[in-house]
Amino acid sequence: MTKEEIQDALHSLGFKLADRGTYWQTNAIWRGGDNNTAIQIYKDTGVWIDYVDQAGYKPFQALVGKVLRTNDSNVLDRYTINESKTIDIFENIDRKDTIQVEKTYSKELLKGLLPHHKFYLDKGISHDTLSLYQCGLATAGKLNNRYVFPIFKFQDPNTIIGFTGRSMLWSKDNSNIPKWKHVGTKRNWVYPICLGEDFYQSIEDSETLYIVESVGDSLALTENGLKNHMVTFGLDLSSQQLMAIVAFNPQKIVIAMNNDESQVGMKASIKHFVSLLDFFDFERLYIVQPQQNDLSDMQKNKCFNDWANKQVNQEAQQRYILEYLRNSNNQRSFPKKANIGSKIEMLASHLNEDIFDG
To answer: Looking at the domain assignment, is residue 83 inside a domain?
Structure first.
C-alpha cells in the first residue's frame, strides 16, 4: 500500500491523524481512548504501535482488525489488499528441531517481513545496505516484534538455514527481553559472506577480513564499503567460521569485538587471537576495538572513520596479550586444546623475551 492508500484507509475507519513527519499520531478509537498520542502509525508501511498497551509493533492489517473487530480476511482485504498474507511466517518454527538438525526455509518466507526500517535508518544505515541483507520487521510468531535477518547457507544464497532477530522492545531498562534471538544452527553460519558474491569477493580483493560481534556491526561495515567481514553472533568463533577464515587465507585479520565496560569484548578478542595463532603468523593479526561500545554506535554517531583509520602498534599489543596469558586466572578461561603454554612460548620468542618474564 502507498502512503496515500494507508491515509485514505485510516480516514475511512474514522481516525483523526496528527502529522508528525514520518508517522501519524492518533487515539485508540476502538476502545474510546482520548489520548491523541497513544497510537503511532508509520506512513511508509502502516506499521503501528500502541504505547498504552505496550504490545509492540504490529502490521496495518491488525489495526484494521482492531477497529472493525474482525479477523475475516475478506473484510480486511478491502483495506489491506496489497499486504502480505505470510506475516506469521515464524509461527511454526520449532526451535528444538533447528538446534538438532539444520533445517532449510523457503525464500518465500521473506515476503512476510515488513519493510519497516526506521530503527536502522536512524542508526545511519541506508536503504541500499538494508536491501542487501533482505531484512525486515516480523509482527507475529516466535520472532514477533523483532527486526529479522535471514541467514543463508554458505556459498548458496538461495537456501535459508536460519534467522536472527533484534528485539524492537529491548532496552537497558527492559533487559529481561533477549536483545537478539536466533533460529537455526548458529555454529554453521558464515555471515554475511553467505549473502552473495560481493561479500566473498571483497575479502579476496582486499586480502583483509574483519571479525565482529553482531549484525549491527556488520551493517556499519557494509555501509562504509567494507563487506569483507564475518559476524560471530556472540563471543565465540565456531569451527565452521574458523575453517572459512583459513580457507580465505587473508593477509590481514582485524578482530573488532565490542568495547564494553566489563572488558568481555577484549577478552573474547584475545581468545580469537589465540585461536588464529594456530593458522596465521603474528603479523597478520590485529585487535582494533571501537572507540565507542561497538561499530554500530560509531556509525550512528558519525565517527566510523575514526576507527577505520586507527593505527595499531602491533608489538605493544602482542606484549599486552602475552602478559594477559601469563596470568593464571586468565588461563582458566581457555579450553585445554588452546595450549596456552605453547602460545606463551611462541609470543615470548617472537618478542625476544624470556618465557617467564613479568
So the answer is: no
Give yes or no for a contact between 42 and 57, defined as CB atoms under 8 angstroms apart. no
pLDDT per residue as tens digits for the range 284-298: 999 999 999 999 999
Calpha distance 134→230 (Å, rounded): 17
Contact 221, 298 (CB under 8 A): no
Phi, psi dihedral angles at 15 (to 5 degrees): -75, 140
Report CA-CA distances (Å) from 319 to 30, 269, 282, 344. Answer: 66, 15, 12, 10
DSSP letters, 55-114, are: --EE-HHHHHHHHHT---HHHHTTT-TTS-S-TTTTTT--HHHHHHS---B-GGGGGGSB
Residue 269 φ/ψ, nearest 5 degrees: -60, -40
| Residues 212 and 291 both lie in one domain | yes
| pLDDT per position as a tens digit, 211-221 | 999 999 999 99
Which pLDDT belongs to residue 100? 44
Residue 11 lies in a domain: yes
H/E element, 240: helix 239-248
Q: Is residue 88 part of a domain?
A: no
How many helices (H) and strands (E) the chain has is answered by 15, 13
- Asked whether the beta carbons of 299 and 306 are under 8 A apart, the reply is no
Q: Which residue has the cell 503501528?
A: 48
